[in-house]
Design brief:
It contains six helices and eleven strands. It has a six-stranded antiparallel sheet with strand order 10-9-8-6-7-11, covered by helices on one side. Helix 1 links the parallel strand 1 and strand 2. It has two domains: 125 residues, HUPs (Rossmann fold, 3-Layer(aba) Sandwich), CATH 3.40.50; 70 residues, no CATH class. By secondary structure, the protein is α/β, with parallel strands linked by helices. InterPro entries: Histidine_kinase_KdpD (IPR052023), Rossmann-like_a/b/a_fold (IPR014729), UspA (IPR006016). One of its GO terms (cellular component) is plasma membrane.
Length: 228
């Protein structure tokens, strides 16, 4: 039942990548303002048990965000052969959605998958829903090619520091995604992980994290992130 005082329901559509966190925060802000239920949706053509470690990491994070929000619910549509807009429209109808939030990057990516305009298709399919296209910074330094695709990794306490490992050992302290700088033979880059229900990005130098201090990704990389 929709208990929103404005009779609204919010749907955030997320695709794998760091920008999903900002989209969810935008959705939470709108949902809180309108006292509306929030749904977080992701869609994948592969079945869940065939998803790689990086995708599973993001899914785990999205579930955490949903659990942290009193009226939020995470929706996973895997093994989907239908066009993305059809799946979004179905979820929107089933949950009486009135507003949909899409990231510009996810929007572009889904258009590549569907080979058509997802926005035009959604407008035709569910004309009663307001669409919000949020401009977001792209994948971590993806435009400049300074970081490789993220891979599953772990931090293991080693004295006062943490050692980066790519093997799941018994004594791991944190599990996350490591984004390695390109053109280097050393494990330098950014390690992204969850700590106390918050997402942190810490600097890795030669496979070592000296302190769990959050790095301001956008400031450090001079990315345009004007949407708050």
């Amino acid at each position: 039942m929709n208990n929103s005082v404005y009779n609204e329901s919010i749907l955030v559509c997320v695709y794998y990548g760091p920008n999903s966190e900002r989209l969810i925060k935008r959705g939470c802000a709108i949902a809180n303002l309108m006292k509306a239920p929030l749904y977080i949706l992701t869609i994948d053509p592969k079945p869940f048990d065939e998803l790689d470690a990086e995708k599973l990491f993001y899914i785990e994070q999205w579930k955490e965000y949903a659990h942290a929000h009193a009226t939020a619910q995470f929706v996973m549509k895997d093994n989907e052969s239908r066009p993305v807009y059809k799946v979004i429209a179905e979820v929107a109808r089933d949950n009486n959605i009135t507003q949909i939030i899409l990231g510009q990057t996810a929007h572009s990516r889904w258009e590549q998958i569907t080979k058509g305009s997802i926005i035009n298709s959604l407008v035709r399919e569910i004309p009663f829903v307001d669409l919000h296209i949020v401009s977001v910074a792209r994948y971590i330094r993806d435009e400049e090619g300074l970081y490789e695709k993220g891979i599953r990794a772990y931090l293991i306490k080693d004295g006062e520091k943490y050692k980066l490992s790519f093997n799941h050992e018994k004594q791991i302290d944190f599990e996350g995604i490591f984004f390695k700088e390109v053109d280097t033979d050393f494990d330098n880059g950014i390690f992204r992980f969850m700590k106390d229900a918050a997402t942190l990005h810490v600097q890795v130098i030669d496979g070592i994290v000296t302190e769990l201090t959050n790095v301001d990704i956008h400031a450090a990389m001079n990315l345009d992130d004007s949407v708050k």
